[in-house]
């Protein structure tokens, strides 16, 4: 019995000892956990302070880098634009100088042609104005002498518009060896020689043809008399102003009124055939202009033929200048195309840099760092 009591006591002591050991261990473990928590809390506060400082430093560094990078890129772009502008201005000056030099030489070669075209245009305007006023003047020109003076004035006006005052081309009131005085002769080279032009204005019977106050018979007689008047003028010119070995074997009968000229060609074919046989050709202001312009061209062509070698040399020199101009223009054009291509590539690169810079500028670095930590 005592042994059992001792055994239980021993067991009780053991249990009490275990409880005490467990309690002491739990208490120590609790103190250790509190210590660890305190250390971790202190470390967390320290780390947070360090991270905040690091974040601020990184932000400042990135802002400085961004500002420096932006200034550097702007400076480089401005410097590149200045250099490009200077090069383009130099190229433009060279192109303008080359073009101006070439076009000045070209304009010098064609100035005479432009002057002739201007003179012809002015002559055409004057003729149109004269033609429109002829019909109204018919009521005034009732006197034969007055009509003759008017025809001569219009004839001389046309000649002056084409030839100017050059007496080498024509001569007014030319006296022939037979004593007759022609209104004008045009001086050409052989084989034509001097071509006589005489002004005739058969107006009286022409007006009677269209006078509605006259009877039909009277107007028919006016038509017959008109035919006789024109034929008489043709044969007078043939007999008086075509002189063998002195003048050309043809002559011109100048009719100042376009309406009369058109009437003869439209209704009196026998008169036209008679003029061909007599070699006295009827001309109006418009057709005379064409004839004498052609005669002038033939005369000038003969003059050019006399100096054809000199003209060919000048054309060869001009051709050399044109070839040199083309070569220089091609060189400048290639330089300009290369510069344009380089500028286009530079523009593409600049756009990419600006786009990338904007992408970097818009990144939320603060948010990314918080997520990482």
Question: What is the distance, rounded to the nearest whole angstrom, between the alpha carbons of the first and last residues?
Answer: 71 Å
Oligomer: single chain
Give the H and E element order.
Answer: HHEEEHHEHHEHHH
Widest sheet, order of strands = 1-2-3-4-5
Tell me how many strands there are: 5
The gyration radius over C-alpha positions equals 57 Å
What does the main sheet amount to? 5 strands, mixed
Beta content comes to 5-15%
Calculate the mean pLDDT score and round it.
76
| Tally of alpha and pi helices | 9
Q: Which class best fits the helix and strand makeup?
A: alpha/beta
> How much helicity do the residues have?
over 70%
Number of domains: 3
- Gross morphology: rod-shaped
Which regions have little confidence, pLDDT < 50, spanning 5+ residues?
A: 364-373
Topology:
Elements: H1 2-137, H2 144-163, E1 170-175, E2 181-187, E3 194-199, H3 204-209, H4 216-241, E4 247-254, H5 258-267, H6 269-278, E5 280-283, H7 285-306, H8 308-361, H9 365-372
Parallel strand pairs: 3-4, 4-5
Antiparallel strand pairs: 1-2, 2-3
Quick structural gist:
This protein has 373 residues and is α/β, with parallel strands linked by helices.
